[in-house]
Amino acid sequence: MSLSSAEKRRAEPDNDLVRHVLAGKVEAYGELVARHQARVFYLGLKFLRRNEDAEDFAQEVFIRAYEKLSSFQGSVPFAAWLYRIAYNLAVNRYHLKKRQLQAVNTVDILPDSSFSPEHHLLSEELAEWVRKSLQKIPETYHVLIRMHFFEGLSYPEISKALEMPVNTIKSYIFRAKELIRQRLRVWDREAVHG
Questions:
Q1: pTM
Q2: Domains plus CATH for the chain?
Q3: Fewer beta carbons under 10 A from the terminal one: N or C of the chain?
Q4: Count of H helices and E strands in the chain?
């Protein structure tokens, strides 16, 4: 059974699809958009806070990426290269509109239904405290935490995407975690130990 050209494209690595687009097969760009659209939209939503703005943002990111595609070297994953474009545009829009970052949704902090109502309430309070803590750390720390822990990018990938030294990234992420830990200690004393 042979695969259709669309199925073959879905199985190809991003960097190969970029080569196809640059060779004139522009339909391959649609596959790149499909693969990365949710991640770009989500980043826009975090900075811009409204679905409509995030949709416009995502469209602009993909237009800019397409226009700059010939500058893509292939030395970094396409996702990291795209994320750098998206991040830069998000920061620019954020500063233009002077909005606060929306809290990053925490990863399933809430317990399963077998826990007591008291435990459930504490978990909800903890999730809210983490969201607020993420809002209060410096923007750079917030973005690095997002890229590393929520987007799954490695330190070298973040380094190449943001043109920032790996050791600086490690240091910033360490500091961000420390700031969050300090806030969680306060929460622990207030919420748990009353």
A1: 0.52
A2: 11-97 (1.10.1740.10), 117-192 (1.10.10.10)
A3: N
A4: 9, 0
User: For residues 21 and 194, what is the distance between their CA atoms, to the nearest angstrom?
Assistant: 60
3-state helix, strand, coil in the chain (%, to 5): 75, 0, 25
Query: Backbone dihedral region of 65: left (phi > 0), alpha (psi from -120 to 50 degrees) or beta?
Result: alpha
Contacts (Cβ under 8 Å, ≥6 apart) of 171: none
Which residues of the chain carry a pLDDT beneath 50? Answer: 3, 98-113
CA distances from 43 to 2, 58, 122, 179 (A): 37, 9, 29, 22
Q: Take residue 97 and report the two structure tokens written for it.
A: 């509109």
Q: Can you tell me the distance from the alpha carbon of 51 to that of 79, in angstroms, rounded to the nearest whole number?
A: 22
How long is the chain? 194
pLDDT tens-digit profile of 47-80?
Answer: 777 888 889 999 999 999 999 999 998 887 888 8
- Token pair listed for 163: 């043109």
What's the sign of the alpha-carbon dihedral 29, 32, 38, 41?
negative
For 4, the token pair is: 């259709």
